[in-house]
């Protein structure tokens, strides 16, 4: 079985959200996930910063606002490097999650290796116009970042605020 590390930077920072994709469950009352054939829980391997900037674009009807993407190009300013949560999962699960995320996320980025496994994530090929996230979506991002990093609410707010422009 082939394993990869999925680097989550948006709502999939939150365990509950990622598991909805893998298990085919509803997420806070919204049922729209098909689930993966392999329903094994992914393993959280911590987090790191990567040299890409988070931005919000497009309009999700599910979230009623913009959603998170990584800029398709390298971000030179470390202040704007994105936090990613490292999830060890099978390649099949990664592809399944990617397909459920939809056609906006067609560009794969290889972020190096961790314990001999490729660290992969996905974003858009093009950079979309800015569209702010809804409060609901931003609250999920904040909850996910807290679960991922253990940061204080002030640190979490400071992190997300720099991308909300």
Q: So what's the overall shape?
A: globular
- CATH topology-level name: Hypothetical upf0131 protein ytfp
On the 0-100 scale, what is the average pLDDT?
95
What is the CATH C level class, in words? Alpha Beta
Q: Please report the distance between the alpha carbons of the first and last residues.
A: 42 Å
Q: Quickly give the CATH architecture.
A: Roll
**Helix run count:** 4
Order of helices and strands: EHEEEEHEEHH
Spatial order of the strands forming the largest sheet: 2-5-1-7-6
Give the biggest sheet. Answer: 5 strands, mixed
Q: DSSP strand (E) fraction?
A: 25-35%
The Cα radius of gyration reads 15 Å
Walk me through this protein's architecture.
This protein has 165 residues and is of the alpha+beta class. The protein contains four helices and seven strands. Strands 2-5-1-7-6 form a five-stranded mixed beta sheet. A two-stranded antiparallel sheet has the order 3-4. It starts with a strand and ends with a helix. The protein has a single domain, classed as Hypothetical upf0131 protein ytfp (Roll).
């Amino acid at each position: 079985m082939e394993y990869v590390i999925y680097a989550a930077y948006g709502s999939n920072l939150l365990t509950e959200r990622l598991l909805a994709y893998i298990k085919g469950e509803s997420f806070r009352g919204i049922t729209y996930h098909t689930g993966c054939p392999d329903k094994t829980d992914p393993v959280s391997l911590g987090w790191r910063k990567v040299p890409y900037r988070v931005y919000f674009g497009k309009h999700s009807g599910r979230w009623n606002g913009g959603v998170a993407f990584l800029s398709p190009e390298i971000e030179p300013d470390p202040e704007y490097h994105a936090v990613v949560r490292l999830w060890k999962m099978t390649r099949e699960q990664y592809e399944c999650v990617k397909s459920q995320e939809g056609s906006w996320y067609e560009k794969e980025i290889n972020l190096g290796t961790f314990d001999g496994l490729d660290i992969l994530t996905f974003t858009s090929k093009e950079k979309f116009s800015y569209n702010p996230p809804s409060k609901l979506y931003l609250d999920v991002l904040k909850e996910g970042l807290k679960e991922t990093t253990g940061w204080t609410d002030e640190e979490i707010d400071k992190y997300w605020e720099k991308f909300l422009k």
